[in-house]
Design a protein that fits this description.
The chain is about 25% helix and about 20% strand. It contains two helices and five strands; from the N terminus they run βββαβαβ. It has helices spanning about 55-65, 80-95; strands at about 30-35, 40-45, 45-50, 70-75, 100. The relative contact order is 0.19.
C-alpha cells in the first residue's frame, strides 16, 4: 500500500505581515590601523613609526573625532611582529576604545 500527500502551496494567496521597524542605525566609526612587516603604522593615510603607546593613543583619538564607541580595525601584515599588534591594542585601551577587531583574508587557492 502506498500513500501520498500533495500540497498546493504555490496556489495559496498569502498576505505577509508588515513590519514597521526602525532602520538599521548608522555603522560605528571605523579606525583602520595598518601595520606592515617592517613595523610601520598607518592611520588615516598617515604613515608613522611607533614611538610610544601614548602617542599612538592620541592619534587614535584624533582619528575618532567625536565618534562614540569607534571600532579599531587592525590590519596587520602576516609577518608583522606580535608586539606591534599589542602596541595598537594597548593604545586603543588607553584611548578608551573597547571595540577592537582584526582584518583577515582567505588564502588564495
Amino acid at each position: 500500500m502506498v500513500t501520498t500527500t500533495y500540497q498546493r502551496v504555490a496556489e495559496l494567496q498569502i498576505n505577509l505581515p508588515e513590519a514597521d521597524a526602525e532602520q538599521v542605525k548608522d555603522r560605528p566609526k571605523e579606525i583602520n590601523v595598518g601595520i606592515d612587516a617592517q613595523g610601520h603604522y598607518v592611520i588615516d593615510k598617515v604613515v608613522f613609526t611607533f614611538t610610544n603607546v601614548a602617542t599612538l593613543a592620541d592619534m587614535l583619538r584624533r582619528s575618532a573625532g567625536d565618534a562614540k564607541e569607534p571600532v579599531v580595525i587592525i590590519n596587520a601584515d602576516a609577518n608583522a611582529t606580535h608586539q606591534s599588534v599589542i602596541h595598537v591594542m594597548e593604545a586603543a585601551r588607553s584611548a578608551g576604545f573597547v571595540h577592537i577587531t582584526f582584518a583577515t583574508q582567505t588564502p588564495a587557492k
